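To illustrate this point, we now present one chain and its tokenised fold:
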Amino acid sequence: MNDHIVIPPPTPLPALRPVRTPARLTAVALGLAGAAWALRAVWEIRLAVTGEPASGPPDQGGGEHRPLTSLENAYHLISSAGGITAAICAILFVVWLDNVRDNARELSGRRPRYSGFWLYAGWLIPVANLWIPRGIVADAHQDSAPGERLPRSLNVWWALWLLGMFGGVGLMYADDTDHVIARAYTDVWMLLAADAAVVGAAVAGVFVVRAVTAVQLRYLDDGSRYDEPAGGADSSGDTAG
């Protein structure tokens, strides 16, 4: 009687890119970048407490620079190490984001709102960099887990990132290290406020990486596809990451 019943073949699982290891590496890099900026803040406080030498700031003007003190020279080294750490962190973050973005496309069956060009240029192009990177992360989360609210850490991370980026301390600042040292002698509180924003953004970024990765690992671990709810996948909000 049941000879003619045909059992449909199982739906093939989408091929997803690895996210666990890139997420761990990115989280470690964010932690190191935050620590580097915290160390910069400590040195800026030390510069402010020590006070500017009688010979004036390192940049004497007219292309002349006086010899650096040991404290100033150490700040140069710390600043360079922080810049290298930030560059490594940026590379790892983009690699992780590329992976979760592609996975979100596989899970949802929808084309990303932003093309691959914006995955890189969105951080660099003025005005666009005010919202596009956050949008790419938010879309990766929503397309991976339709109907789930966005993690609170996403908005915290992005607000602190913008404050740090435009705060004048090493992310998008125009002054060289000697000018930052001069500012530490005269206006250290503005530097410390921007440092705090960068450190906070790094910490919040770890929670963002964990939250977006977690929704994709649920699929990778149990093989269950997240079906879009009847109301669609446009709902958003805030929940703990």
